[in-house]
Amino acid sequence: MNELNEKILAIIEKNSKISIRDLATILAETEENVAKAIFDMEKDGTICGYHTIINWENTTRETVDALIEVCVTPQRESGFNRLAERIYNFPEVESLYLMSGTYDFCILIEGKSLMEVSRFVSEKLAPLDSVTSTATHFMLKKYKEHGTVMVKKSRDERQLITP
Amino acid sequence: MRNPLSQKIIGIKPSGIRKFFDLVAEMNDPEVISLGVGEPDFETPWHVRDEGIYSLERGRTFYTSNTGLMELREEISKHVSRDHHIDYSPKHEIIVTVGGSEAIDIAMRAMLDPGDEVIIPQPSYVSYLPCCVLADGVPVVINLKEENEFRLTAAELEAAITPKTKILVLPFPNNPTGAIMTREDLEPIAELCIRNDIYVITDEIYGALTYEQEHFSIASLPGMRDRTVLINGFSKAYAMTGWRLGYACAPRVIMEQMLKIHQFAIMCAPTTSQYAALEALRNGDADVQMMRESYNGRRRYLMRTLKELGIPCFEPFGAFYIFPNISELGLSSDDFATELLKAEKVAVVPGTAFGDCGEGFLRISYAYSLEQLEQAFVRIGRFVEKLRAEKK
Question: What are the C-alpha distances in Å from B126 to residues B16, B153, B172?
Fold first, then answer.
């Protein structure tokens, strides 16, 4: 990967809101080059989307987040991949990882209620042929997500004027 | 009753920043955006803070040696050698101080006799002149010029030298202008110092923060090491202002005397800070790199913004300040800063806080997030438009 792409990614990973114009200024590049680099990375799947980190606790929306450990029997030929596909296609599934260690898949899921999450596990996930066991852990509090601390109020601790 | 005060102290003007600080503090308005801060907006990197905490847990709560932890001095020696190719003995030529400020003070006190002249280029940090006066020196100010991008020229220096000149203060990369001096700029300065037997105090506290080019230290020029006190610290490079930790490197004859003052006035720099600083030097290169890149982006952003607003400003390549020229807008620096604060609630520091020749300029710090800078400059732009409309 070239240097410009790397620099762009480092910035927009933290701030996807930044304009092409500001990005170009900050990197001492032309807007044209930056726009093209971003377009190319979007096209080749390097940039997969632009999402917003939201602290839902500050809103009226009620959500329940859970982490589900899943043990499976890998399938002949396709190994874990086909099974993974069957799982990640459920829209409830936020993230899915294949893990080393005592279980195989790690699922992050967001639901409206405890009920909704447990229904997903009991009705959709557990019945899958290759799934041998699941363990569901509900999240009690989010401290940090995507490198962003959710619990701390950001306040400038500095004096207003210093030499 | 007798006057309890020293005439020498009474003669020293209070810091020009103080007045402005009081003005902002009095407003006590959460809407105020301050671009007036002379310290990084980053918190100290966590691994550095963690070492500080760990040192407390381990019970390292005692004095260190007067000159500072040997390990820390060794690490400083390695860093200076790596960055500037100058070797200082950790045992005899390096001292850990309470910020760069203490180093400035004890260097002057160690080297000056009453009447010795100290050449101080301005605009520059607020403490050189008072420290010189406190050490019974006579300050000789050189007013740096915008047309030279606020670098010190050999001609300016030569004109200020007298038989009494003992020290030249070199404050680069510069607060408040952001100016730097390159090797080519420093060579004729060094030559003059050697020819006139002048010592140099080079304050390189912003040395880690130069953009587009590496910082160069005058101490690394031939013949300069033995007539230079090199001052640096952890505040700006590692975002450690509140830890109060700096250092000085100097030839042994000077260092021995600086140590005496430090010994009697300070004893030793804070132990917790020293352990944290050790971690910063050992494992903090990536942090410095990250912060430098971030400042550089903001620097470019502000240069563009000023250009769009039609406010002239030379391009600074060091520290985290820009020093725009607002003289054509019809207000003095002080009035501009005061009016801007009142009308648009943006705090900047008038250039005059750093010397009379700062008249016509403002110090704007970019140790702020892009979002804050953007908001502040919308307001500054509106203020400037209004001034221009009034002038017509």
Answer: 8, 21, 14
Does residue B392 form part of some domain? no
Does B290 reside within a domain? yes
E strands present in chain B = 33-34, 94-97, 117-122, 138-143, 165-170, 199-203, 228-233, 246-249, 321-322, 346-347, 349-350, 362-365
Residue-number span of the structural domain to which B241 is assigned: 46-283
Total-model pTM: 0.94
Tell me if B105 sits within 8 A of B78, measured CB to CB: no
In chain A the domains, ranked by start, together with CATH numbers, are 3-43 (1.10.10), 56-140 (3.30.70.920)
Q: Does residue A86 sit in helix, strand or coil?
A: helix
Does the distance separating the beta carbons of B300 and A163 come in below 8 Å?
no
B210: pLDDT confidence band, cut at 50, 70 and 90? Answer: very high
Q: Tokens for A25?
A: 């200024």
Which of these three, B250, B283, B316, is where a domain ends? B283
Q: How many CA atoms lie within 13 A of B68 on its CB side?
A: 33
Task: Say if residue B173 is in the same domain as residue B38.
Answer: no
Asked if B32 and A160 come within 8 Å (Cβ–Cβ), the reply is: yes
Tell me the pairing of strands B117-122 and B165-170.
parallel
Would the ipTM clear 0.90, i.e. be above it?
A: no
> What sign has the CA pseudo-torsion B327, B329, B335, B339?
negative
Q: State which residue of chain A sits closest to B20, comparing Cα positions.
A: A161
Asked if the C-beta of A27 comes within 8 angstroms of chain B's C-beta atoms, the answer is: yes
In the prediction, which pLDDT does A1 show?
66
**Cβ-contact B308, B105 below 8 angstroms:** no
* Number of separate domains in chain B: 2
Domain boundary among B239, B258, B283: B283
Shortest distance between the Cα of A141 and any Cα of chain B, in A, equals 22
Instruction: Verify that B131 and B220 share a domain, yes or no.
Output: yes
